[in-house]
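Reviewer 2 asked us to include a model.

Predict the structure of this chain.
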Amino acid sequence: MDEMEEELKCPVCGSFFREPIILPCSHNICLACARNILVQTPDAESPQSSRASGSDYDYLDLDKMSLYSEADSGYGSYGGFVSAPTTPCQKSPNGVRVFPPSVPHPPQAQHHLLPHTGVLPPVPRNSCLTCPQCHRSLTLDDRGLRGFPKNRVLEGVVDRYQQSKAAALKCQLCEKSPREATVMCEQCDVFYCDPCRLRCHPPRGPLAKHRLVPPAQGRISRRTSPRKISTCTEHELENLSMYCVQCKTPVCYQCLEDGKHSTHEVKALGAMWKLHKGQLSQALNVLSDRATEAKEFLVQLRNMVQHIQENGVEFEACLVAQCDALIEALNRRKAQLLSRVTKEHEHKLSVVRDQISHCTVKLRQTTGLMEYCLEVIKENDPSGFLQISDALIRRVHMTENQWGKGSLTPRMSSDFDLTLDSGPLLQTIHQLDFVQMKGESVHTYCHLHIDTHTHTLSSKQVVNTICLLTEVCFLQEVYVGTEMICTVDGLHFNSAYKSRVKAYNSSGVGQYSKTLVMQTSEIAWFTFDPASAHPDIILSNDNLTVTCNSYDDRVVMGNTGFSRGVHYWEMTIDRYDNHPDPAFGIARADVMKDVMLGKDDKAWAMYVDNNRSWFMHNNSHTNRTDGGISKGATVGVLLDFTRGILLFLINDEQQGPVAFNTLEGMYYPAISLNRNVQVTLHSGLPIPDFYTPGESEAAASVC
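Predicted model (structure tokens):
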């Protein structure tokens, strides 16, 4: 039950829902909170695409509604229209950004109800309401907030939850500190302590016929008492008796006679109530299976932590034993090898623990949604249930999809696939290194084709050994075989490598050839990688064009990683609808794929709309810069490892200052977008003329 509590709290005030209303986007909000975040817009600036409450909606033009400051991230609910640029935004207790109204309300308007009337004050004309969760906006009609249906099911679930949390029922007639109730009168519907019962409810006269029950029984009778019959929001005197299949909402008889539902298909309210309950129950069964699998998966991950720790200790012991068996020269190398093993150990633990944390959060959200849905299924109000059943069914299916392909697969193996070769002679001890790193740590950047004909013996059955210069000075064996040509993968772009070969056969071993110096390609060509992309990503045009089939942001990365050199690529905006916020940048291999790029600490990005952009890393938004994108625009990304910096361009002009610095390690080109955006990648581009790269690393120097 505790995990369901977040489902029962308003996204604005952070407290339990009070008089919740249902927005057209299926999210809920307190009636009072909705009143507080209303925005009044001038006639000339009202969004023309918005509809009256209860119908379709569109994105609100944030240029007309936002209050800008350097801290503004572009997200949140906006409560003012005209204000000084330094107006700070506020956060609700659950993290939703809400801007306060710019002009103070008159003293009387600050109350939610007009004095002595018990009704809401009139809503100003051209009032807009922005959902604090999905940020979609809506212009209210003449009915104002009354046009939104009340979520009686949610209100009932909140009441039951709060009652179940109460330590003890208190007397309702004690004036100062209420004492614990001992009885409840079913006719009066009041809880009494013993003194108040004797004083206010004596067992004589008409009161003698009242039935007194224990408080717990009285609480149950309150829950099971029949609720008030729901009435139509359009025709307040008519009861809801049918269900409009096209509009997916309960309607009354008068709506069918002369309302907008007169030509729509309708069905009996009770039949649709049972049908939707059945659908929700079936969806919950599938989600329950996923939750069970997730719990088993968490157990597997926790066991992996223990195995990694054990294997790490065992591997370190083997490494120390091998190093101690060598002469004094090996001891100088031992510390470096141990450091590498420790990093691999820590990396594995970090990846698994991150996955445990992420999976735990998703499981908690799934369990909370399941408990909330089970409480909703218990509701006896058909119309109230049908108001939210479609949205709940969609949420259950969406949550079930989050446990889909790859989500219950460990990102990291507990094995340490590092092999120490202790065979070299003592005079080559300075070349000692791990022969093989685990596949997930080996990245392909570039490759060379080497012809060994000129370096082999003129004998039959020649076996060639190629030694390639890596990391500037150390030769590493990369091929042994009978082929005269070999391809070496895993090299860096725009780098110099030295190689030499020797041959041997049954007659003996030949001498090493002269050292050859080879240069890899200066330009990095790559495409989007379908293997690592989120399942909602749609690729075409030989994996150069990307879009998405979801309204949520999804991530796709390039198929090539970079760790040195200077690289520049561009993306052309082929389609841009409804002012979304695509994000462009770079990411680690284990970046989260189901959120906007830059939300976690594995990505560095710039997200941009039609008017401005922000830099984002680890969910921190910085450097808001004017200038946005539209259809046909070009976004450039420049990654310079010689300086360790990342910067962005829009339409060949630098966007803001240098976005990020002190970058080192392995990064992949990445982008996040939703179904409103389509982009095409252009890689292998020359560095822009305005940019002067830093001094190159001495990668080609000779030791």
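Residues 269-325 form the longest helix (57 residues). The mean pLDDT is 77. We have added this to the supplementary material.
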